[in-house]
Design brief:
186 residues; mainly alpha; disordered N terminus; 7 helices; 9% strand; 3-stranded antiparallel beta sheet; elongated
C-alpha cells in the first residue's frame, strides 16, 4: 500500500511504493501515452525488468542490483543494444515515479559499451535474387523494401497520401509510431 514516509524531523520525502504496484500504474500511463509501442514496453517489463525489481520498494534499488542485472542479461546472450533499451526503460520508469512524487533511488545508470560494433550488413545481389525467386507472388514487395529501405511495419502502415511525386513520407504518430519514433522522407 501507498504511504508517506517520514524523515527524522517528521517531514515527508515522498510516497514509497513497491515495484509491482508502480509498474501497473506506469504501464497503464505508458499505454495511454504511446499505444503503438506499448506491447514492446510491456514485454520488456514482463520478460526482463520484473526479475530485477521483484517486490522491492523502488527507492531501495541499488546500482549493484543494476550491475548484476546487466551481467545476468549478458549471460543470457542479450546484445548491448537490447540491454541499453532495458536500462532506458528503467531510467524512464524511475523518472516517471519521481515526477509523480514517489521516492526513488538517486542512481546514475550508465549505458553498456558495445565492444562488437560493426557496420550494417547489406544483402548481396545474389541474396536478393534468391529472395525474389523464392517468393514468386510477392517478389515485388521485397524489391520495393530492398530499394527503399522501408521496414515491413512501415510498409504495412503506408498510405497512398504518404507518396508524393518522387518521395515517400514516413510519418510517426502516437497511433502509428515508427521504430525510431521519427518522421523521415525516402
Amino acid at each position: 500500500d501507498l504511504y508517506l514516509s517520514k524523515m527524522a524531523g517528521g517531514s515527508s520525502r515522498g510516497r514509497q511504493i513497491k515495484y509491482r504496484e508502480y509498474s501497473k500504474i506506469y504501464l497503464r500511463w505508458f499505454e495511454k501515452q504511446h499505444p503503438s509501442s506499448f506491447k514492446v514496453k510491456n514485454d520488456n517489463f514482463v520478460n526482463h525488468l520484473d526479475d530485477l525489481f521483484g517486490d522491492i520498494y523502488i527507492h531501495k534499488l541499488t546500482i549493484d542490483q543494476i550491475e548484476e542485472f546487466i551481467d545476468q542479461k549478458r549471460e543470457q546472450g542479450l546484445s548491448p543494444a537490447m540491454i541499453n533499451k532495458l536500462l532506458t526503460d528503467i531510467t524512464a520508469f524511475l523518472n516517471r515515479a519521481k515526477y509523480q512524487k514517489f521516492e526513488v533511488s538517486d542512481l546514475k545508470i550508465e549505458k553498456v559499451a558495445d565492444q562488437n560494433d560493426q557496420p550494417p550488413k547489406y544483402h548481396s545481389a545474389q541474396d536478393l535474387q534468391d529472395l525474389y525467386s523464392h517468393s514468386p507472388n510477392h517478389w515485388h514487395w521485397w524489391m520495393f523494401l530492398a530499394n527503399t529501405g522501408l521496414r515491413i511495419g512501415e510498409l504495412q502502415k503506408l498510405r497512398v497520401d504518404n507518396i508524393k511525386k518522387d518521395s515517400i513520407y514516413i510519418v510517426s504518430t502516437n497511433k502509428a509510431r515508427t521504430k525510431s519514433g521519427k518522421y523521415r522522407v525516402i
